[in-house]
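Reviewer comment 2.1 asked that we show a complete input and output for one of the modelled complexes. We chose the coenzyme A case, as it is the one discussed in the main text.
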Amino acid sequence: MKALDGVRILDMTHVQSGPTCTQLLAWFGADVIKVERPGKGDATRSQLRDIPDVDSLYFTMLNHNKRSVTLNTKGERGKAIFTQLIESCDVLVENFAPGALDRMGFSWERIQEINPRIIYASVKGFGPGPYEDCKVYENVAQCTGGGASTTGFPEGPPVVSGAQIGDSGTGLHLALGIVTALFQRETTGRGQRVECAMQDGVLNLCRVKLRDQQRLMHGPLKEYPQYPHGTFGDATPRAGNASGGGQPGWIVKCKGWETDPDAYLYIIAQAAAFNGLAKVVGHEDWLEDPDWNSAEARLPKIDQMFDEIEKWTMTKTKFEAMEILNPLNVPCGPVLSMKELSEEPSLRATGTVVEVDHPERGVYLTVGNPIKLSDSPAEVRRSPLLGEHTDEVLKQVLGMDDEAIAAAKADGAV
Ligand SMILES: CC(C)(COP(=O)(O)OP(=O)(O)OC[C@H]1O[C@@H](n2cnc3c(N)ncnc32)[C@H](O)[C@@H]1OP(=O)(O)O)[C@@H](O)C(=O)NCCC(=O)NCCS
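Response of the prediction step:
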């Protein structure tokens, strides 16, 4: 038995944010029925293709464990079938441009009329306000949610992160909203509206930067690289690779950095482990020197401290340095490339990186469920082909017979 066995999701999502959410719910055991436009499907099926005429990795890696139904929800017959699907599902999830579902004739009021128990969950770029009608993609959300203004080096332009905090991050938020609403429905018997704005999701993940905005009003941010030599403006600045917490941290070069772009190690020079770190990097002198032997004394020269640490790390590979520093309780981590992550045996062993077989593309690699439930282990099944389950769902879920299905097909509804 899986945690969400018996929960049926009507999945109107596309691209990344919504599919991330419904894929997680599918891994937890929900029956996710992905509704796609006949003949076309989710636009990502054909985006960034690596093999001609085969569903892209963009699509396959975000739509595991789902069933695919094609349905034109703008035609009359399609709308009738969609209405029946709303009646039969526990959750409707969508991330269309603002108002798209209303324009099809399915407002929240109408959806509640059809099924008062349904949970209607949406991702939009913005919440109510001046930008509520805007279409939004990942990097727009990173810019409008505070991610870009606080990422990068002080002297450089704003930078977006490779982590998809706008899309996948908001999908995660939405999934939590949905299971919470399902939990509340156990008591109230009613569904509810669940809305996540990508701007809000990114800002939530940038919470510590809003913390720093307020700390800035009371003086310089001493753990930032701008302290004490640079200047602070009136907004949280970009901090390069400085640690967001109270302990100084930085990325230092390791052996091979001249040719390997990922030969780096993140080191946190935590006060409690400083003695061991100082000794290992050949600076036992720091331990007796009042200019160095307290966290406060080191604060104005963090850059100098990491320059010295780096002289040592450059003589070791990132893995060698980590092996030496770990027993000294120095928190550190190698900068791992996607190649290294994809080959890491421990990630394969836990199912965080998995191989999946696909009838058209063959075997590919994906990220499995990063959330591990002891009683509901996730099994990663390949993404569906476009409309692969149309007949099955129309029969099994809606009870339609062959004749009705043939008529829907003749009409272009499915
Ligand atoms: C992502 C986004 C920018 C893409 O925009 P887009 O490619 O123009 O797609 P839209 O969402 O506008 O949908 C396109 C149309 O297809 C229609 N459509 C979708 N599925 C359909 C179906 N099964 N049958 C008939 N029509 C369908 C929609 O109703 C919409 O029509 P309309 O414009 O006449 O209302 C936009 O959907 C968006 O801003 N979503 C919310 C934020 C978000 O999730 N962004 C992150 C994406 S990872």
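The mean pLDDT is 97. We note this here for comparison with the apo prediction described in Section 3.2.
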